[in-house]
Design goal:
By secondary structure, this protein is α+β, with helices and mostly antiparallel strands. It contains four helices and six strands; from the N terminus they run H-H-E-E-E-H-E-H-E-E. It is globular. It binds coenzyme A.
């Protein structure tokens, strides 16, 4: 991911998420040296993901696929790339947080071997119910 990608990255965020990240947050992620990656074809950015890697741990911070490209395996592919990079950077465990209502993402993570290790009650704002819980999922690396 480069600064020049960010307008298209944020467009995908707005299209895919109820609570999208802003351009400012992605700029900060790039400046912080996080693993910031996009999957793209010649015309457009299909998916993006951001992961922090430090002290033997990695944390998935966002993973997003443009709605028109969902259910074609792109999230799994990009997450695998991020996990492979984290493993090369000596991470031995990955953590992520996901909304308890996000059944699609939870199914993706479970299919990749993640299991729930905790929850944060009322962690996320939710337009329908006010607040909702975050599930904390984890798994050891390497993945394969
Ligand atoms: C969640 C998200 C990243 C999945 O992206 P995707 O490219 O559609 O996922 P994939 O095609 O790689 O799916 C791999 C597997 O995950 C599961 N899965 C993914 N989306 C699913 C859905 N909506 N419902 C049920 N299972 C789903 C399935 O097991 C799927 O395998 P299958 O298609 O062979 O059944 C995408 O829906 C998205 O960007 N959503 C909005 C942002 C978001 O919620 N990000 C996660 C935040 S933690």
């Amino acid at each position: 991911m480069r600064s020049s990608d960010l307008d298209l990255v944020v467009k995908n965020e707005v299209d895919a998420y109820e609570h999208p990240w802003t351009k400012r947050i992605f700029i900060d992620c790039l400046r912080s040296g996080y693993q910031c990656w996009v999957l793209a074809n010649k015309q457009q950015i299909i998916a993006h993901g951001v992961m922090s890697v430090a002290s033997g741990e990695c944390h998935l911070l966002t993973l997003c696929v443009s709605p028109e490209f969902q259910r074609q395996g792109f999230a799994r592919k990009l997450f695998q790339i991020l996990l492979d990079r984290a493993f090369k950077l000596e991470a031995s465990v990955c953590f992520l947080e996901v909304r308890s209502s996000n059944a699609g993402a939870i199914a993706l993570y479970r299919s990749m071997g993640f299991a729930q290790v905790g929850e944060r009650r009322n962690y996320y704002p939710n337009q329908r119910t006010g607040r909702e819980d975050a599930l904390i999922l984890s798994r050891q690396l390497p993945l394969r």
